Automatic annotation (TrEMBL), chains A, B:
Protein family according to the UniProt entry: Belongs to the NtaA/SnaA/DszA monooxygenase family.
Pfam families: Bac_luciferase (PF00296)
SUPFAM superfamilies linked: Bacterial luciferase-like
Organism lineage string: Bacteria, Pseudomonadati, Pseudomonadota, Alphaproteobacteria, Hyphomicrobiales
Keyword Cell cycle: no
Keywords linked to the UniProt accession: Flavoprotein, FMN, Monooxygenase, Oxidoreductase
Listed name of the protein: LLM class flavin-dependent oxidoreductase
Domain of life of the organism encoding this protein: Bacteria
Residue ranges constituting the Luciferase-like domain according to the UniProt record: 19-381
């Protein structure tokens, strides 16, 4: 079977784009509307997406936006939301974010196992260490732990969770009414983990998952992040503006995985893409301008300043003029350099720069027709830059509908994307192997499955 | 309006009764079946119950049962399950258990606020401190904390959660597309808690709940438990075998609440009742015998031994003879005395004793017709023993159906129970007041509500 593009959908209800809540298509209370999230999930499933993905934060986050201007300041907790959405879909996966720094492995293992049980094997765990002091301050700390400490803790946390997910062997539950044997006690195992950060006896009080265990997802870009991802991740979300850097990242991850003895095909690299789709290029461009025109000047300027850690104060400058050559301060040079590079490459004014940056927040923005967009996706997919993409519709629901109604058919026409789901679990649809339970490795997988 | 009986339903999917999974009516995989839980929720709503209640444990619990013989060894995590059930119901409340000892207040506040948002204001939090070393060993400890420490931590945990639930004032969200003001930043508040056990800055990243905040539920019976309940609980679950002890507890709780300046009508006492309902007394008795006959002798004897901490070894005794007079050991005297009292009062053989105990596990078992059962409920309700009851159907789903189809109509006939839901939130149906946000106390409630 030919290799197919995998697709995730990043659908936060509140907007991905800084001004999306001001777009007339988007319900102004989308971030807190269960019905709206249900509609998004069902649209993603109509488009045969692999998974619905939600990022998360353990604090009120302003995301560089003006206080009072951010519609993502409050919303649902991801695993409760996804549990509620799962019964309204049948094949779509649900990848929720959960923190290895501020949550306990027993609770992490349990909530994802429960989501997996509710959804019939469609759960994924996006493993994050959670950056920022504002989250730390909600969990008994004054400042966050150092980067390296967070990643050491993360590696151990993931190990414990995976061990807990193996507590019951696949065929542990006999449920024999006559004999009164509900489960085979020889097939229930304690974890007995005693590590540097955690001490967990187990077993977990949830059965083995319908897909073995939930799919492990990560998005770390640092050295520590890449090491953790290569060792444990099955899907990696990443952000690149150019095919060259995407290729560098893709090859690096696959190489690291191979070195650790893993099959590089079992670790899927999925860059983020923010698409503005039109039947013509002019229509696509119109949609881009429609949305970006909704950015208040104060928010746009504030965003550039926020992205550079408060070192790019552009107040008083003509927004329709060029980005000033000499940066006003000396801090955060790399972020300033990135903005300078984008401005120079595109010959952007200050306004055009913040419009571009606000749109994808670091991900790759494509403005085009189904054909030109699929040309790009195909190029990345066929040249070791991507195994699939995480689609970030810049406003909702219509930018998602545009992708489903216009881009998906073009992908299918070229044989790059499924025309029906391959299976009912997330793992089956992603083409990832069923992880054999550590306690039943002697048995063939087929027999081990219930 | 006349005072009405409040009803909770304890519906664990797996059986309340030790042998219920062997009953032919009950699906053998009920504990892990989402469809079965959905059916139970919809049946409870058909019966106009106030709430669906789930107990919980943070370890594999054998509940005194034979290893391998317990169908509640594995199941769903309660808040994910209830989130998934909520959209399939419209008025039923969902009271989930969560631990103040092993969970963090920010996460507790968030998951219940999210369940409340998903359900439109139907969430309740059953506050537990979680007993037992087996749970402690899943959370970096060798043994559990002392009782008093757990309760001190619980009181602080509840305080922090309630403060976090007030982060956004009721009318904080303006969502004005023209001006770009999504929320009024003056109506978002940090918690800034620094206590003995927790340090939490806030604010919570979930809006204020549709019912102000989720209903606070407790079940503590000890001195510490009663103090905590009197101070913070709005609903109390309790277990009594006789109206006299239920009255003592009821009056004690109401007195403690009054002393703390609370309105005693705003703290509802709900004893557990396990009903076997028949159209005739003979039919009810038959149902009792049908279920209890399914208890394996090994499990019955093991249960009595387990309940007394392993001090009542009855192996070798005639199960159809009397409970031996001299207890084989001297430990756990109070539990042994309780079993002795039940055996003597009812003139029970060993078999009859374990059958009785297995049925309700400390709650009040009633075997009767709708009329005799309602006679008892009415007596308790009208004589300061109960504001309502937590119904524990001994097997599922038919014992729940019996209650809904036979007992509810008799309660309604006597004007003791609602004929339709009073409101859409759990709080409205329980007749509990809307808690005014601490930051907007100057404003009248009517204006503060969105």
């Amino acid at each position: 079977m030919a290799r197919k593009i995998r697709l995730g959908a990043f659908l936060p209800g509140g907007g991905q784009h800084i001004a999306s809540w001001r777009h007339p298509d988007q319900p102004v209370d989308g971030a807190v509307s269960f019905e709206f999230h249900k509609h998004l999930a069902q649209t993603a499933e109509r488009g045969l997406f692999d998974a619905y993905f939600l990022a998360d934060n353990l604090a009120v986050g302003f995301g560089g936006a003006r206080e009072g201007g951010n519609d993502r300041v409050a919303g649902f907790e991801p695993t409760t939301l996804f549990s509620a959405l799962a019964p309204f879909t049948t094949n779509l996966g649900f990848i929720a974010t959960s923190s290895t720094t501020y949550e306990e492995p027993y609770l992490t293992a349990r909530k994802f196992a429960s989501l997996d049980l509710i959804s019939g094997g469609r759960a994924g765990w996006n493993v994050v260490t959670t950056t920022g002091d504002s989250a730390a301050q909600n969990f008994n700390l004054d400042t966050q732990l150092p980067h390296a400490s967070r990643y050491k803790r993360a590696a151990e946390h993931v190990d414990v969770v995976k061990a807990l997910w193996d507590s019951f062997e696949d065929d542990a539950f006999v449920r024999d009414v006559q004999s009164g044997v509900f489960y085979d006690k020889a097939k229930l195992h304690e974890t007995n983990h005693r590590g540097e950060h955690f001490q967990v006896r187990g077993p977990l009080n949830v059965p083995r998952s319908p897909q073995g265990h939930p799919v492990i997802v990560q998005a770390g870009q640092s050295e520590d992040g890449r090491d953790l991802a290569a060792a444990t991740a099955e899907v990696i979300f990443t952000a690149h503006q150019h095919i060259e850097t995407a290729q560098e990242f893709y090859r690096d991850i696959k190489t690291r995985a191979r070195r650790l003895g893993r099959d590089p095909n079992h670790i899927l690299v999925m860059p983020g893409v923010s698409p503005f789709v039109g039947r013509t290029l002019a229509e696509a461009q119109e949609k881009y301008e429609r949305l970006t025109s909704l950015i208040l000047e104060e928010d746009g300027v504030g965003l550039l300043n926020g992205l550079t850690g408060g070192t790019l104060d552009l107040k008083g400058y003509d927004l329709d003029g060029p980005l000033p050559v000499a940066p006003p301060t000396e801090g955060m040079k790399s972020r300033q350099a990135l903005l300078r590079q984008i401005a120079d490459e595109n010959n952007f004014t200050i306004r055009q720069l913040y419009q571009w940056v606000a749109s994808a927040r670091g991900h790759y923005t494509i403005v085009g027709t189904p054909e030109t967009i699929v040309d790009t996706l195909q190029e990345w997919f066929e040249n070791e830059a991507a195994d699939g993409f995480n689609i970030l519709p810049p406003w909702l629901p219509t930018a998602l509908d545009d992708f489903v109604d216009l881009v998906i058919p073009e992908l299918q026409r070229r044989g790059l994307f499924r025309t029906e789901y391959e299976g009912t679990t997330l793992r089956e649809n992603l083409g990832l192997p069923y992880p054999v339970n550590r306690w039943s490795v002697e048995q063939p997988v087929a027999q081990a499955a219930e």
